[in-house]
Amino acid sequence: MSTSTEALPEPIAPPADGTSARRRRRRGILSSALLWVALAWITVMIGAALLADLLPLASYEQRIGTPRTPPGLTWPEFLGTDQLGRSVLSRVIFGARVSLAVGLVAVTAAALVGGLLGVLAGYLRGWPDRVIGLLLDSMLAFPPLVLLLAITAIQSQSFLTLTLALSLLSVPGFARLVRANTLSLSKREFVDAARLLGSSPRRVLLREVLPNVVLPVLSYGVLVLAGLIVAEGSLSFLGLGIPAPRPSWGGMIASGRPILSSSPWLTFVPAIALFLTVLSINVIGDHARRLTDKKAAAL
Q1: Maximum CA extent, the chain
Q2: Omega of the bond prior to 76 within 30 degrees of 0, cis?
Q3: Concatenated DSSP letters for 163-219?
Q4: How confident is the model at residue 195 (pLDDT cuts 50, 70, 90)?
Q5: Can you give the pTM of this predicted structure?
Q6: Which of 102, 131, 283, 292 could bond to 38 as cystine, CB 3.0-4.6 Å?
């Protein structure tokens, strides 16, 4: 009778040189660097948009030089001129004012309306939840482009019309997010404790639920802002945005597209500004989401 023994596989020891730790450290340093670069870019764009009237720039309607002058070292023709001899730099900065203003106003209005609907649906439940859910489903049933076309067809093209259309498209997302967070928070121990202590529903809502909903809404709103800036640029590119001569990044890209081969800066300069702004907002929003997730896990 013979017995046989099988050799067990030896456990693989972790690398002694700390390679994984160094990789995590490098990723952390790169992530922090990207965040600071993104914050710097957004700060510059917001500052330039707010102070555009005080900066040594030509008016976005003023003709300052020869039409279609390429970028050079002269001021204010630093980024060249367009088909009418207007400064591309001035129009990009004033276009930033339009894009950022539309995005910020639309996302703020959507967060307020959607947040209110979401809190009511998640906290009251019952028939208010069903009615609000039906309203949100009805809004989501319309294709976004069709809804935007309908709103711009009924109303004249203006800042108010564009902001209203984009905010309506964003309300369901905020409402669903707030409803889900409210439902989750209403079952937590600290909310039950507040009810047992005799707090009124209004006090529980204002003191216990809403403060813990704000951070997820803010982190989600940053990401929505990036999408709304892209949407505004797309609508302006299609001729449905802010009417000329007021500049917008999408309108500048559209006006430079027919002469892209001979004057590429007319398209690339506003496109790069749009790309870097949206990318920076997404980087900031991603970091905000991570912080929000850590706080939610600690509750």
Answers
A1: 103
A2: yes
A3: HHHHHHHHHHHHHHHHHHHHHHHTTSHHHHHHHHTT--HHHHIIIIIHHHHHHHHHH
A4: confident
A5: 0.82
A6: 283
Which domains are delineated in the chain? 98-235+275-298 (1.10.3720.10)
> CA 294 → CA 4, 39, 265, 289, distances in Å?
52, 21, 43, 9
What does the alpha-carbon distance between residue 185 and residue 197 come to, in Å, rounded to a whole number? Answer: 17
Token code pair at residue 109: 């209005």
The one-letter amino acid code at 294 reads K
Round to whole Å and give the CA distance between 61 and 279.
Answer: 29
DSSP of the chain, one letter per residue?
-----PPPPPPPPPPTT-HHHHHHHHHHHHHHHHHHHHHHHHHHHHHHHHTTTTSS---TT-B-SSTTPPP-SSSS-TT-B-TTSBBHHHHHHHHHHHHHHHHHHHHHHHHHHHHHHHHHHHHH-HHHHHHHHHHHHHHHHS-HHHHHHHHHHHS-SSHHHHHHHHHHHHHHHHHHHHHHHHHHHTTSHHHHHHHHTT--HHHHIIIIIHHHHHHHHHHHHHHHHHHHHHHHHHHHHTT-SSPTTS--HHHHHHHHGGGTTT-THHHHHHHHHHHHHHHHHHHHHHHHHHHHHHHHHH-
Q: What's the pLDDT score for residue 213?
A: 86
